Amino acid sequence: MARSRRRRLPADPVTTIIDSLSHDGRGVAHIDGKAVFIHGALPGEEVSFLYTRKRGSFDEGRVQTVLNPSPDRVEPGCPHFKICGGCALQHQAPSAQIAAKQQVLLDAFERIGKVAPALALEPLTSGDLWGYRKKARLGVKFVPKKGKVLVGFRERGSSFLADIDRCPVLDPQVGDLLTPLSKMIAELSVKERIPQIEVAIGDRDCVLIFRLLDPPSEADRERLLAFGQERGVAVYLQEGGPDTVTPLSLAGDDLRYALPEQQVTIRFLPTDFTQVNSGLNRLMVGRAVELLDPSPGDRMLDLFCGLGNFTLPLARRAGSVVGVEGDAGLVERARRNAQENDIHNVRYYTANLYDSLEQAPWLTESFNKALLDPPRSGAAEVLELLSGLGVERIVYVSCYPGTLARDAGELVHRHGYRLRAAGVMDMFPHTAHVESIALFER
Questions:
Q1: What is the pTM of this model?
Q2: 361 and 423 share a domain?
Q3: Would residue 88 count as lying in a domain?
Q4: Rounded CA gap, 40 and 91, in Å?
Q5: CA dist 163 to 151, 156, 167, 209, 269, Å?
Q6: Which of 117, 195, 234, 268 could form a disulfide with 253 if both were Cys (CB 3.0 to 4.6 A apart)?
Q7: Is residue 67 part of a domain?
Q8: How are strands ordered across the β-sheet holding 34-39?
Q9: Is residue 432 part of a domain?
């Protein structure tokens, strides 16, 4: 069946006009009433494209020639853009990228939540368009036919790793290290048993976690350790589950990032969740503090608080802050971060915010302001309790506009809040990922 479908793809290029941009950064055209998602095309362009797949409800394709380019079209900054699936929008001017993301957010509010913000916040950008990414998972694959180890990201629309020599979006400590990594891994006895390298970079130190499916030899360990020392990175090994991640050297590392405006420093482990873009994170924390406007009389609640990225800056100005997080390890390190920053008006609790919270001790308290920073699935399970706790102002930080829009509709239509302001933040330049922030008030 698969071969038959491939034979039915038109062999000749087709010319069309691009109507809009999809949520994943592809141009959207309509041919004979059917949507076609075309990689490499921008809204308003006339392009010729080749079909790459036909489906029941939509088709897919890739640009062959841009016949009438958009004024927003630019030359991609990475030579691997055409094959690597790590970025989708390098051919679009950065200002147009963020404007398109803002429209995605506003459209989601209207379509899903049936709401609109009273004020569209100016998109938040840091100006760090390259070398900004400090967290990543790199695929690793020994390919005998190529006689080399590939290190990087998957090809666009494929399960195969792209053959790239560097990545300008990654922090240069790692982005310029792909070729040396490839050559070093090729010398290991376990070169065929390393599927992944996890990257974690702080303001100073850089950690590489090598996932191993078989134990390395002593010679492998020595080679990995020497590579780390030569390149100025800390090497960790993971030979099983997440709890098996250990530093290869006893010297270890000191991963941390600073929030200078709030005089806060956050320490973290290589496997902890932190924002990938530290420059934008500083601006995001500043905007959240500005929108919540904490004062000594405020009792604040930070749900999905993680390591204290928002909790500790808020506590610098609020009367008291309670942080709640489902990962006990993150809570332990958040408490340690509070101590090291000499912040004593914060209390942390471990709780799965998607389960019943009837026995949670913090639910017996009252709060007038709250911050939500949930994962992609959103925060629907905790929305009802916010009004019961007396929360008058909410700042909601989101990594997915669909669930933010859904939850905004619930807060407005069911719980008596108003959507006062919302806007996007350019956490992932050159990708279609949309990070956003919204302010709700009773």
A1: 0.94
A2: yes
A3: no
A4: 7
A5: 8, 12, 11, 21, 30
A6: 234
A7: yes
A8: 14-17, 46-54, 58-68, 34-39, 27-31, 20-21
A9: yes
Residue ranges making up the domain that contains 344: 98-128+271-441
**Given the residues 84, 167, 206, 399, the one annotated as active site:** 399
Sequence-ordered list of residues with C-beta below 8 angstroms from that of 151, at least 6 positions apart, any chain: 138, 139, 140, 161, 178, 181, 182, 185, 197
pLDDT value for 38? 96
CATH code for position 330? 3.40.50.150
Q: Do 173 and 229 have their domain in common?
A: yes
Burial of 205 (0-12, 13-18, 19+ CB in 10 A): middle
Residues 44 and 183 in one domain: no
Of 246, 143, 253, 271, which is closest to residue 206 (Cα–Cα)?
A: 253
The answer on 116 and 60 residing in a single domain is no
pLDDT at 251: 66
**φ, ψ dihedrals at 312, nearest 5°:** -70, -45
Residues listed for the chain: 442
Is 171 in contact with 201 (CB distance < 8 Å)?
Answer: yes
373: amino acid identity, one letter? D
**93: in domain:** no
- Under DSSP, the state recorded for 265 is E
- On the question of pLDDT at 6 being above 70, the answer is no
Domain check: are 410 and 302 in the same one?
yes
Residues 32 and 120 in one domain: no
* Domain match, 175 and 37 both: no
Beta strand pairing call for 46-54 and 58-68: antiparallel
pLDDT in tens, 350-377: 999 999 888 899 999 999 999 999 999 9
Residues 184 and 304 in one domain: no
Q: How many CB atoms lie within 10 A of CB 122?
A: 11
pLDDT of residue 252: 62
Contact 249, 109 (CB under 8 A): no
87 is catalytic: no
- Whose tokens are 């010297």? That residue is 251
Q: For 50-75, write each residue's pLDDT tens digit.
A: 999 998 899 999 999 999 999 999 99
Residue carrying the six token digits 């062959």: 64
Number of domains in the chain: 3
Amino acid making up residue 13: P
- Nearest-angstrom CA–CA distance, 75 and 66: 13
Q: Which amino acid is at 310?
A: F
CA distances 178 to 50, 141, 200, Å, are 32, 12, 15
Concatenating the DSSP letter of every residue in 171-209 gives -HHHHT-HHHHHHHHHTSTTGGG--EEEEEE-SS-EEEE
